[in-house]
Amino acid sequence: LAGSGLAQRFARDYAAMWDQRYARLAAAVANQDRASALDAVISLKITSAMVGGLRLAKLAELLEAVIRMGDFRRGQVLMVRVAEDGGQTVSELQANYILEND
User: Fold this and answer.
1) What is the spatial distance between Cα 20 and Cα 99, in angstroms, rounded to a whole number?
2) How do residues 18-68 score in pLDDT, each as one tens digit?
3) Within 10 Å of residue 60's Cβ, how many Cβ atoms?
4) What letter would DSSP give residue 100?
5) Is the pTM of this model over 0.85?
6) How far apart are CA 85 and CA 79, in angstroms?
7) CA–CA distance from 69 to each of 13, 48, 61, 62, 87 (Å)?
8) Cβ–Cβ under 8 Å, residues 18 and 86
9) What does the DSSP assignment read for 3-24?
10) Share of the chain above pLDDT 70, in %
11) DSSP of 40-86
């Protein structure tokens, strides 16, 4: 979708909302709030795939399975990778897509 204004806005919004999206998921996992964690991780999985962050989308899929099993200890461990991959995804979007197409 290079050159598409809609795609560029979606990528910009995704990057701008990353901190909020991550904080919501991290809090839900830390509080072992299954419903909120599932809502947040499914949103992360879908939007990451839509923006091209396939590694992060796959990680979110794994985290979703862990949450569904009720293994919040493992979920908290995975959150470290979510933070890293999410930060890298946002940086990649900003450097190679959002700024490139401004």
Assistant:
1) 21
2) 999 999 999 999 999 999 999 999 999 999 999 999 999 999 999 999 999
3) 26
4) T
5) yes
6) 10
7) 31, 22, 13, 11, 26
8) yes
9) T-HHHHHHHHHHHHHHHHHHHH
10) 91
11) HHHHHHHHHHHHT-HHHHHHHHHHHHHHHTT-HHHHHHHHHHHHHHH
